[in-house]
Structure formats: C-alpha cells, structure tokens
Design a protein that fits this description.
binds ligand 48F; 259 residues; three-stranded antiparallel β-sheet; 39% helix; 9 helices; FAD/NAD(P)-binding domain; alpha/beta; eight-stranded mixed β-sheet; 11 strands
Amino acid sequence: MALDERIITRAIVDRWHKKFQESLDMDVCIVGGGPAGIVAGYFLSTWGHRVSLFERKLSLGGGMWGGGMMFNEIVVQEEARGLLETFGVPTEPFTGEYYCADSVTCTTTLASKASLAGLRIWNLMCIEDVIMRSEAITGLVINWAAVEIAGLHVDPLSIASRFTVDATGHACEVVRVVERKVPGKLLTDSGKCEGEKSLWADRAEQLTLENTTEVFPGLYVAGMAANATFGGPRMGPIFGGMLLSGKKAAELIHARLTE
Ligand code: 48F
C-alpha cells in the first residue's frame, strides 16, 4: 500500500477534534500535570468521572522528572509508599521510613496509568483565565502554550467544568487569577493568596495535606499549589505529600460529585 499523506493528516485532525468536542463539558478540569495533578486525575478517572488535565509543557511530570537538583531519584516517606506501589512503581528502602524511587520510572508510570484510566490529557495547552459566575468558578479559559510563549495576541477558547483543581505547583496560577480577577475572597485567613514560605520538609509535608481543600467555590488546590495558597513552606524533593494531596483532592471532589 502506498501511504497517502492526506489520510495521515485527516486521521490526526479528525480524531483530535472528536476528542476535543467530547471534552467541552467536564466533571473536573485539572490544571497542571505534576505529581499532584496526575494522581488526582488517575483516581477521579478510575472512579468514573469525566476529567481533563491541562499541561503547558510537552510532557507530564512537572518537577518530578528532575528528582533533586537533577539527581533523578525521589524520596517518599512511609505514608506514601503504598500509593506509589498502587501504581506499580518500585520503591527501595533507604533508611528508617525513607524510601527512594527512580524519578523517571515514577513519572512515566504515573502518567501512563492515569492516561490508561481514561484521564483526558491536553498537553501544550495553558490555562490563562477562569469562567466565573456569581456562585462559583464554572470552567477554564484555555490557549495553546505556543501562543503564550510567543506572546501572540490570540483569543482563547473555554471549557466548562463542575470542579477545577489548581495543581500548578509553586506558582498556583489559577488561584492567582481568581484572586486578581474574580470578585470575592479566597477561603484563606487573609482572603488572599498567602504565598509560599521557605523550606521545611516535615512541616510542609503535613501542611500539604491539610491545605488540600476548596479555596473558592468550585476551585480546589492540590500539591505545592495548596501550600503556596495557604502560606505553607516548600518541602524540596520529598514527594509523598504531592502524591497524597492528589489523592485527597480526588476524594473530596468525588464526594461532591456523588452527593
Ligand atoms: O510543579 P509541579 O510538579 O506541581 P506539583 O504536582 O508538585 C510539586 C513538585 O514537583 C515539587 C515540590 C515537591 O517536592 O515542591 O516542585 O504540586 O507541576 C505543575 C505543572 O503545572 C504546569 C507546569 O508546567 C507543571 O508541569 N502548569 C503550571 N501552570 C500552568 C500549567 C498553566 N497555567 N496551564 C497549564 N499548565
């Protein structure tokens, strides 16, 4: 058979548009494909919800690929080891309750399992704004990352979503947009984004879980974005809190979707 380039092009364009049209009205949209966002997406998809995840970069994984300072190993504590094993990621005991995993195995396995669970992954797209109604955040304003990177003046499109998760890491980009542009206050002490504090691994890991919650009607925070929103410290390359936070966000939203 002689290959026809026009059919190859049509296959890609047709299939992509079908996926996109089926994804205009979602149960949950997750912004950011780091460990917290991927884990949240995996569980919500596994539990039967319609979930999209938007990632600005070419690949999922966020800060997990690079381990600590480009040494491609991550550390997890006892509480999170079982979660990694749920995904089939091998861990090795280091000492006491510290375990290590290869950061590349970890990233690729989490992303693969989430995708196969039915999570709709939109890479190379960024969230530049939210859709607001008087009662809640009801969706996201999306654009190509290439448009953002090139600084082009191109209007975005939008996606409806019952719940949104800000899993954008240190920058907590969705929360920052809501703080700046949506009337009302965030559900933090000051009503504003408190901002991330300096490194304290133990406290940060506990707070990441506590801070994983709804921060504005319809908007949840997970992972490092949770600590940055509520004024918690950063934790460095220990990833248990990120993984457990993604699972907690999924559980909270699952309860809302099924109540
Ligand atoms: O930063 P990131 O890995 O967030 P996380 O899941 O994990 C944090 C850890 O990696 C590490 C740490 C803990 O040990 O402190 O930093 O909380 O992943 C966030 C992802 O969100 C994407 C970004 O490219 C990254 O892959 N992202 C950020 N803003 C946007 C976005 C946006 N506006 N639109 C789309 N993607």
